[in-house]
Specification:
The mean pLDDT is about 95. The chain has helices spanning about 20-25, 40-55, 75-80, 105-115; strands at about 5, 10, 30-35, 60-65, 85-90, 95-100. It is an alpha/beta fold and about 120 residues long. It is globular, with a radius of gyration of 13 Å.
Length: about 120
């Protein structure tokens, strides 16, 4: 299975690819991972906000998308103790450094990133 790139800053990933696509890749570039589902209204509200932020930062971090209803991806959500969606995790240097759940406004996300050393 290959990683589907949506553009140069946003890509879809899955349970089978997560270690390479997110954990290993975060050793060079921070990666924000959005766990989402089609049936989740807050997920659809958050998507355009995350896309605006990742493009505004122009490569300072990447955005990985994990559709929780696709294949084994719910196992991945369970591994990280998720109880609701959307849940967003930040990986830096191969480790999860922060998380939030629910939709958030753009200024909140930028503050979250800055708190973890990812600046615009």
């Amino acid at each position: 299975m290959t990683i589907k790139k949506l553009d140069n800053l946003i890509f879809n990933t899955s349970y089978e690819q997560f270690d390479k696509a997110v954990i290993e890749a975060s050793r060079t570039t921070p990666i924000l991972v959005d766990f989402w589902a089609d049936w989740c209204p807050p997920c659809t509200m958050l998507t355009p906000i995350l896309e605006r932020v990742v493009h505004a930062y122009n490569g300072k971090f990447l955005l990985a998308k994990v559709e929780v209803d696709d294949g084994h991806n719910m196992k991945l959500a369970g591994h990280y103790g998720m109880r609701g969606f959307p849940t967003v995790l930040l990986f830096i240097d191969g480790e999860m450094k922060g998380r939030w759940h629910s939709s958030k406004p753009e200024h909140w996300i930028k503050h979250f990133l800055a708190e973890h050393g990812v600046n615009e």
